[in-house]
Every structure is written in C-alpha cells, then in structure tokens.
Amino acid sequence: MSNIILVPSHLINSQTIKSLLNTYGKIFYVTPTKERAQMAGIVQIPPKVALKHISSEKSRSDYYLFSPEQFSTTLSACYIFMHQNVKYVISSFVQLVIGYYKCSVFIAKQSDSKKVLTCYRPKQMGVSEVLSTYIDELSAVPHVTANPLSNLFYETVVKQELHRVMTLQYYLRHSVKQCDVALISQVQERKKDLVMLMERHHA
Amino acid sequence: MLSRGHIVMCSLGAAFDAVTKIKTTRDVFSNLKSIGLSIIDSIVKTFLFYRSKRMSASLNNAILTRSDALPEFLKKNVTFSHPHYWQQCLRHGGPVLLVTPHYGPFAVGCLKATMDMYGIRCVNAFYDPPEKNSSTAEYKAILSALGKNFNPIFNNRKGLVSAMRALRNNEALTMMPDVFEINNQTVYVPFLEYLTCAMTGTAFLARKSSALILTAYVRVDGSQRIVIDLDAPYQMAISDNEEEDLYRQTAIFMASLETQLRLYPEHWMYLPNLPSRLISRYTKNPSDISMKIRSLSRSLNLQSGKKL
C-alpha cells in the first residue's frame, strides 16, 4: 500500500519539503501539470504518472505528497461531499487514491514552531472522513491571500467549469475548422447543465 | 441646469474625490494605463472620470428638482455627434433599439430621445428592477421627468414580453449592453484584448424585431454642452444560425463600446472595475486556438466528433 501525504498548499515551501524528506526519505510531489514548478530535492510528477505508480506493486513504500485544492476538476469526474453544511468538490484523483487504491493517508500540519511539518493519520480512512479532516486543517489557518479552501467549494468549481466551457465555446466559434458539430452541441449542453446547477445551488 | 457654477463645483469636487478616494483613483489610473493611455493622459482622465461622475449626479439631481426647465435645456444643450444619424432614426418607420452603456449622463440621452420622439413613437427603457439592482431605484423618476412618452420595463420574464410588444408596435427601446449575469444567455466576446462576459438579450430583441439599431454614448464635453456620440444606425444581419447571429451582434456591441472607451474612457461608470470584467487574454493564432480547444475539451471530458 502506497502512502499519501495531504499538505495544505500554503504550507508547501522548500523548508517544509526538506523536513518531510528528512522524515520519509523518498517523496513524489504530485502537482497538476501546468502548475509544476521546480523545487529542490523532490521529484515532481503529474497525477496520471502517480496513479500508474500507485497501481503498480512496486511503489508500496513510496510517499506521494499533494494538495487536493490544487487539482482542477470537472463535475463529470469528481467526488462531491458535504461537510458542515457546505458542499465540496474534490478531484477524482484524490478519491481514487484514498477510496479505490486505499493508500495510507497522512495529513500534514504545521508544528508550533512553524518551521517543520508534522503528519498524523486521520481517525477514519473513508474518503469523506479523510477529506473532512483535511478541510478542517485547511480552514484552521488564517489565510493572508486568497483562501485555497475556496477552490474546493462547489460553487467555485461550477463557476470555474463554466468559465472553461464558455472559453471553449468562444474558441470553437473562431476555429478555422469550425465544424465539430458534436463538440459544439456537447459544449452547449454542458453550459446549460452548469447554469442550471448554479441556479439550483443559489435557490 | 448646467451652469458655469455647476461645472466649477463639479471640477472642484472631482479634484477632492481624486485625492480622497485613493483606492478608486489608483484603480482608475492603472486601468486607463492598461487601455493604452500615457501616464499624463491617465492622470488627466482620472480627474475627468470623477468630474464626469459628479456632473452626471448633478444633472440627475437637476432633472428631479427642475423638470420644468428640462425641455429648454435638452433643446439648447444636448447635441449629436452626427445629427443626420439621429434624423435617420426619427424618420425610420419601424422599431428602434437605442443601445447605450452606463456611460456619462445616459439619462439625459434617454430624455432627449423621449422628447424628440414625442408624437413619433414611445420610448421604453429596459433595466433591472430596483429589488435586483438598487442603483436603478431613481431611474423611473429621472427618466419620466418629461411626464410623457416614456415607459420603464423591468428586466424579468414579463419585461421581455413587454419589450417585444413595444418593438412590435414600432416603439423605441433603450438597452444597456454592459451589464451581465451568468446564465444561458451569457457569452464570452472579445473586449480590450481580453474575453469578457456579455449578454445576448439585446441582440435577441434586435433579431426578433428587425429594429433599427442606434448605439449612443452620452458625455459632457467640459463646457455646458452634452454630446451624444452616435454610431451609424443599422439593422442586424440575420442568418439561419440564430446562435451565431446573437453572438456576432453581441460582439459588435462590445466592439463599439471598446472603440468609444479608447477615445473617451473617462465617462464609463465601470472603469474602476475593469479588471474584474477582463476574464482572460484571447488568441487569434489558429494553431493556438486548436491547442486551446484540445486542452479545454480534454479538461472538460468532452469528446471531439472529429480530429481538430
């Protein structure tokens, strides 16, 4: 069974990574492709590669570190759950590694000295329970800039997806080979669905 | 209604605003620079932005308190950039769609239309009801100041039917294309080198009614004169593809606003909030477009029917 470490994104920096490397040895940092940035001493991999590793027998003792709020998702492939009357959306990657591959989960929190990260195991290993614990951890910290937790809000995810749908709709109109009828009608349908979800959420 | 004293007071007030409303001043200045203005022009236009706001507020106030002097004022002080476009619009036999954003003292423009069209056609103004948008609470009183030939229509389902009926009766309807909410009628269109949200509602009405479209921008020119800048009137090009027609016409409205903003940005009410309207830079390069389509489709789990 592989191990995963959920780390709130605002806590990831070279110092905290170093402290985790000292504790666990080899760690893979799973980041969405576009946001990957160089960080000394740690191997960064995209979620697809991480899933390949995790599903193979070889990676039993490996550690995979990531921040669930960094993964963009779509409502057609995601995990939706309620925590304290708020609807959250999590990428299906996170659901897969916790729920399907049954990885051993650790959640990182900042030590009192704020110099190192300490990790603990959540009391229950169900997907909702793990993520609820993580969300509590994420919301406990005062955020100076934009709150990373908001990336997991259902409403934010719907808005972000609607933005991608409308951007795609714009480019389809301006495409030279503008006749992908199947795609155009799928985009229109998705837009309609998302608007309906947003209106229902506000009602 | 707009005496020299008023202008001096508005100018002094604008200087005061520019110094005291630091955040807005910074926002307006940097937004003007982002449109492409030089530092000097941005400073001047920031001051003019506040003056335009003060003058619009002062005019609205005067309309409410001195409506008896309004016809004379509209006759003497309000002029058109292209009077023949206005004449063409007055002579037009069918419905007229007056498109004007939240720009300068737009209420004065609406009142001018109401006065000039008296006996020709009724003027209807389409806007959000006050319970939806509190800033429209005063609109009815201001726009009805002439006491005749005006009818407000609220932006709701019933309002849309009333708007259609007004156009079918060959009346005039004013629409404001620079407000939006996210719903099925929202599209992304190019605006100041970015994509922005716009509603296809105005285009929908134009298409359904074949109305003559007249885009107007009302501004105070620094003296006691109010100028209504007009684009040439036209009728919407209609094809078999309704969705494409609505998109194209909505893009035309926003392109017209962009042209006006490049000339006189200081009168646009939403200038301080410009960045929140600019969603993402768009590309025109065909290979970049193909790449965008591929990556967006993939991220949305949408299947292309053919190779792009």
Q: Ranges of chain B with pLDDT <50 over ≥5 residues?
A: none
Task: Outline the biggest β-sheet of chain A.
Answer: 6 strands, mixed
Beta fraction of chain A = 15-25%
| Structural classification of chain B | alpha/beta
Structural class of chain A: alpha/beta
Biggest interface goes to:
A-B, 36 and 32 residues
Biggest sheet overview of chain B = 8 strands, mixed
Q: Give the assembly state of these chains.
A: heterodimer
Question: Distance between the terminal alpha carbons of chain A, to the nearest Å?
Answer: 43 Å
For the secondary structure, the number of strands of chain A is 8
**Cα distance spanning the termini of chain B:** 61 Å
The percent range for helix content of chain A is 40-55%
Strand content of chain B: 15-25%
Overall pLDDT confidence of chain A: 85
Radius of gyration from the alpha-carbon trace of chain A, in angstroms: 19 Å
Instruction: Compute the average pLDDT of chain B.
Output: 93
